[in-house]
Amino acid sequence: MENESRRGFMGKAFGAVSGVGAVASLYAMKRSWDPLPSVAAAGFTKVDLSAAEPNALVVEKWRGKPIFILKKTPEMVAAQTEEMTARDVIVGGENFLIAIGLCTHLGCIPSYRKDSTDFLCACHGGKFDSSGIDTQLPPPSPLVIPPFKIDGTTVVLGEEGPEYAKMKESGLIA
Amino acid sequence: MAHFEKANSLNEWLDQRLAVNTLKRVLQTEYWIPKNINFLWAMGMVLAITFGILLVSGIFLLMYYQPNVDTAFDSVNYTIMREVGFGWLWRHVHAVAASVVFLIIYIHMFTGIYYGSYKKGREIIWISGMLLFVAFSAEAFSGYMLPWGQMSYWAGMVITNLFSLGSLEFNGLVEWIRGDYVPAQAFLTRFFMLHVLLIPLAIIALIGIHFGALRLPHVNNQDGEEFDYDVEAEKYKAGDKKNSKVIAFANDFLSKDMFVVAVYLVFFFYLVFWNYSFAMDPVNFDPADGLKTPAHIYPEWYFLWSYEILRPFSKDIGLIAFGFAQVIFVFLPFLDRSPNAVPASRRGLFFIWFWLLLIDMIALTAMGKLPPEGIYSTIGFVSAVVFILLWIALPIITKFEKKV
Amino acid sequence: MKEFKILAVVVFFSLVTYWLVEPLAHSILHKHVDSNHFTYADLPALEKTGDVANGKELVMGAGACTGCHSLEAAGIAASMDAVTAASSYGVNPPDLSAVGAIYDDKFLAALIKDPASALNVSHKFDPASGKMHPMTQFYGAGGDMDQEVADMVAYFKSIAPKAEEVTPAIAYENACGRCHAVKYESWTQIGEKPTFKFKKDEYRFDANVLEYQEHLTKYMGALPPDLSMYYRSRNVHFLETFIEDPQSHLAGTAMPRVGVNAESAEKIVEYLADSADTLREDRESVGIKVMIFMLIFTIFAYLWKREIWKDLH
Q1: Structural domain tally of chain C?
Q2: b vs e for A12-47, b when ≥16 Cβ sit within 10 Å of the residue's Cβ?
């Protein structure tokens, strides 16, 4: 009898040891699916804004994502609400929209409409104003502002500067 | 070592070692199928044949396909389509079969729902079938990535984004699945692996379970009639095939299946050669470009109904509704509270429920492809709400169903 | 009989779904553009009969066409190579030997008189803002301008190959090939890519292509796409109406109306079909054989079923 219960116990113990091995190998498998260090590290883009034309959308690439850069005309700045102005990045005395150009609904690239100075997402009909704030469903939130640092007339994407930190503090960036 | 007699024939030699005669009896000549069935009962065989076609055509595509973001598109559209002997045939066959297989799956599924073939011992058949549906969906999606066209890329982007789970913002999870910030090389190679190895293995295992689950409860029949299989089998074996309610799997059932398969293949090859664009979206003949979204992004037709359930709501509610739609079919055997395993036409309200569900899913499918504006958006929203309400109503209406 | 009823229900719902997601959805998703069959109704008709000899003089004259365009049929080679030409004009000006066969007469006349409006790109080249089309318009050689233009068109037609001698490749290369590469046919914007013996020669060629593309990108605003798979990514109707007038599909596009005649447009589409759907004739012929086999297969399947089920009913 004792022998048998011992056999039962050893069976369970063996199962437990196997389980530890299985979990450990699961960890290895999870790690193998992680982005490679070279992929994760690539990702600081410098953009010079001095040559930007007003009301003409510039699309840059950062970490494989399109970045919208839009220099606003004085009329646009004058017409916008405080909420919109708060999202503007001021470089060299000019107001810029800097945002990841992916719809916050499901990641399509909205297109900029010069005449109405807004963005329309062709996938599901979402709209954003010239500050990237969502104005029509389904997108649940404004276009995401990427981490940036202002350096004279250039902007470094991927690095967090004081202006970005301030926006984050005031809750503009989730 | 066991004692082996010298065999007098190849059959006997094999029987000694593999018990082929027993296998033949259990799987073919004495595997009893009800006689009272119609051609819808052949959909299982049609699916098995289509899966075989996918496997064979896939093997030939695999020999020249290159899972590399720079060469994938050309390896399909130039090498396979222009250079490999009959490469174009394998590709068209593979693409059309991948689409048509879902039509047959839906017919097979709705047949099961209509005749109540998911309860009274047949729950595992239904559940394994729904798991097969999930596995086929994953297989179809991963395969759709491989030509690395515009629709591959953007479908990959949109679908993997679902894993951020709305406001939970699990961006780390999305990037983990992709192996990059956006669909790129790591993404293509891992979906290639899933498509040619892991998911096919899962499908084959599930098919085994699906077939196995059929053995004990037996196949349902057209009228949901319960009878004693042993008695009917005895009648058949005694030679009274005319009055027996059962037939043998082979060759009785098989011969009818193969006739249905033949008719199906006529239809199938017509699509392969002359009407394939429904399965090979033109947009996917533009190479993937991460900086240019196509004007319209829509999934293949068989995903449209669940895609449409996602769309009309705000992000989080949409995701919940989508998740609901993905899993709810699995629970059908338990949500249907009625003990009646008979055709829907004899089940009162359930009959109406069945046709409403079918029409609602067709409406969702149609709206899922159209741009989400105006009336399409409204119809889509109403259909999505109706879909959810139908499933909530199911336990209630079946609870009060009269026993037949 | 019951089986046929069930079959009818299955077929009905399948067809309804198909109709909704294919014909109906696509008719809603895509803009419908009618073809005008390459009549170019907006352009004035040619009323004068041209004089070939006078046309030749005008074309060859100082500061006229051959100042920028080559005319190989008359032995006039290009004054500069494609890349240099693109650096000065934005795009390599075409050789004029075959234009009389490829382009519509009315279009040629209108082009000579006012390139920007014949090409439908006036929105891009606004003389008021100093943006001129690189092709200078013909201001007349002193006589009746309409007569002179008619003479030049008559000359181009006299030296052009016959319509049947214009192959799909010639039509494509003339009308589209200086902006659009077709990788699957080894076509680049500066000509067909040869096979090279030495890697360095290939790199040199590729570098030239890249340089040409850089000039072209600046000129057009974006690099015109490679058209290798356009026959399958677009449909024939789209290609035809797009070639006829790009603005009808893509308002504001930088792509000019190329002004080909109907036969050339057909040849261009054929060229694109050869690139993207090369083996379409094999598909037809194999398809018919497979269908015949499948019908025989079905008959035998039915006969076998009937034999087996004779004992069961």
Answers
A1: 3
A2: eeeeeeeeeeeeeeeeeeeeeeebeeebeeebebeb
The mean per-residue pLDDT over the stretch C277-284 comes to: 96
Name the residue facing C234 among B39, B247, B282 (closest C-beta).
Answer: B282
Residue B368, amino acid: G
Range of the domain at C286: 279-313
Tokens of C279: 């083996």
Spell out the alpha helix ranges (H) of A34-148.
Answer: 37-41, 74-79, 82-86
Residue C21 and residue C102 share a domain:
no
Nearest CB to B291; choose among A36, A59, A106: A59
The architecture in CATH of the region B28-297 reads Up-down Bundle (1.20)
Cβ distance of C304 and B82 shorter than 8 Å: no
Please indicate, yes or no, if residue C39 is contained in any of the structural domains.
Answer: no
Give the model's pLDDT for residue A3: 61
Whether A105 is a known active-site residue: answer no
Which one of C232, C284, C306, C307 makes the best mutation probe of the B interface by having the most chain B beta carbons within 10 Å?
Answer: C232
Same domain, C25 and C172: no
A1 has a pLDDT exceeding 60 = no
Q: Looking at chain B, which residues constitute the CATH 1.20.810.10 domain(s)?
A: 28-297
This prediction has a pTM of: 0.88
* Residue tagged active-site, from A124, A125, A152, A165: A124
Residues in chain C within 8 Å Cβ distance of B256: 305, 309
List CB contacts (< 8 A) between C285 and chain B.
none
Q: Is B399 on the interface with A (CB under 8 A)?
A: no
Alpha-carbon span B13 to B20, nearest angstrom: 9
Tell me: domain A41-169, CATH 2.102.10.10, correct?
A: yes
Which chain B residue has the Cα nearest residue C302? B259
DSSP characters over B337-404? -----S-GGGSTHHHHHHHHHHHHHHHHHHHHHS-S-HHHHHHHHHHHHHHHHHHHHHHHHHHTPPP-
Average pLDDT, rounded, for chain B: 94
**Residue B296 in contact with partner chain A when CB distance is under 8 A:** yes
Interchain pair C13, B358: CB under 8 A: yes
Q: Respond yes or no on whether ipTM tops 0.90.
A: yes
